[in-house]
Write a structure and sequence with these properties.
179 residues; alpha/beta; Rossmann fold; 5-stranded parallel beta sheet; globular
């Protein structure tokens, strides 16, 4: 099976990519992240994906567009629902690209993070699979959370401290939002 694998960041890709390869699946990465703020963080994550991909010989399709304004237009009215838009928009672009390029399936490194809403990601992935007539490859990669962290540290990769969006940055760093 040939999978287009959405990469939210290098760190979240390490464990899943290894597992998929161990299953003899062909994996191509796809960097599309319309949510990351600020721009320096976007570039740092993109550069880290490129570094990781080079090290593990992973082909990666890259969308380098910085799309913060369109992301904010979609979520500003209801920030509490931002994750739905974030998951759906990134998975949809991955599914669309996978279908366009003739992949058998698509998936995402979002399925590695214990901080993400797995049920929503899976629901969106399965709905998009039907829409684009392509398979959604689901696997719960969270059991490899600690292993992935250790692998990332041993590779010396940049490790971000929040999911990427302006709201998660606020949740992480604003003293007011933590109270």
């Amino acid at each position: 099976m040939n999978i287009l694998f959405h990469l939210c960041c290098a760190n979240c890709a390490i464990y899943p990519v290894r597992v998929l390869r161990e299953k003899n699946l062909s994996v191509t990465g796809f960097f599309f992240n319309n949510n990351i703020h600020p721009y320096q963080e976007f570039r740092r994550r993109l550069d880290t994906v490129k570094e990781y991909a080079h090290r593990v010989e992973l082909d990666v399709q890259i969308n380098e567009d910085y799309m913060l304004e369109s992301f904010l237009q979609q979520v500003a009215a209801n920030p509490a629902k931002r994750c739905d838009y974030c998951y759906l928009s990134r998975l949809e672009e991955t599914a669309r690209k996978a279908a366009e390029l003739g992949f058998d399936a698509f998936s995402s490194s979002l399925l590695y993070s214990r901080y993400q809403q797995h049920d929503r990601i899976r629901e969106f992935g399965e709905n998009l699979a039907a829409k684009y007539e392509i398979s959604f490859f689901y696997e719960d990669f969270r059991q490899g959370w600690q292993e992935g962290i250790q692998m990332s540290k041993s590779m010396g990769l940049y490790r971000q401290q929040y999911c990427g969006c302006i709201y998660s940055e606020m949740d992480r760093y604003s003293p007011r939002s933590r109270n």
